[in-house]
Design goal:
The structure is a single chain. With 166 residues, the protein is α+β, with helices and mostly antiparallel strands. Strands 1, 2, 3, 4, 5 and 6 form a six-stranded mixed beta sheet that branches. The N and C termini lie far apart (102 Å). The C terminus is likely disordered.
């Protein structure tokens, strides 16, 4: 009697292979939306960084005596970002001046805030800086020491440790 040889896959082998491919496809499909969100967040961060660099340069170029008057509660645009609904000036960025904590003379605490909306909802990011006309010179080191001491006290006001000196 002649033997018949069967070539190919059994039903069980095909089902196992199909299950493995389906699990791999589901893993890939789950990664796509989070990858897109991460890409959008990275683009927004880059836009904000460029805008903050531009605003920082403009603040540094402004004479200290005029800075608060010229910049306090001033809105600014961040190209590519949509302001949150109800924003009074329809600009995502704003700058807020306040006296430096501890009432250090010749210093302002500046909060640069960006509020925007995208497909993932509403977002807010802010950066807090110090604007000062205090110089680190032997004639008046006390105020600068007070700024640095306050900054290093872990009070949370100056998280990025950046200073503008005029």
């Amino acid at each position: 009697m002649r033997q018949i040889r069967a070539y190919g896959f059994t039903v069980v082998e095909v089902m196992i292979a199909t299950s493995i491919l389906a699990i791999a496809a589901l893993g890939f499909a789950a990664a796509v939306p989070s990858s897109y969100k991460l890409s959008e967040d990275t683009k927004a961060e880059a836009r904000i960084h460029r805008a903050l660099s531009s605003i920082s340069a403009a603040l540094e170029a402004t004479p200290f005596a005029e800075a608060a008057v010229q910049w306090h509660m001033r809105g600014f645009d961040v190209p590519g970002l949509t302001p949150q609904k109800g924003d009074a000036d329809a600009l995502p960025g704003e700058i807020e001046f306040a006296p430096a904590p501890g009432n250090i003379p010749n210093c302002y605490r500046i909060t640069i805030r960006v509020r925007w909306m995208d497909t993932n909802g509403s977002h807010v990011t802010e950066e807090v800086r110090i604007l000062s006309n205090v110089r680190d010179d032997p004639g008046d080191p006390v105020e600068l020491d007070a700024i640095q001491e306050f900054h290093g006290a872990g009070n949370g006001y100056f998280p990025n440790r950046e200073y503008f000196y005029r």
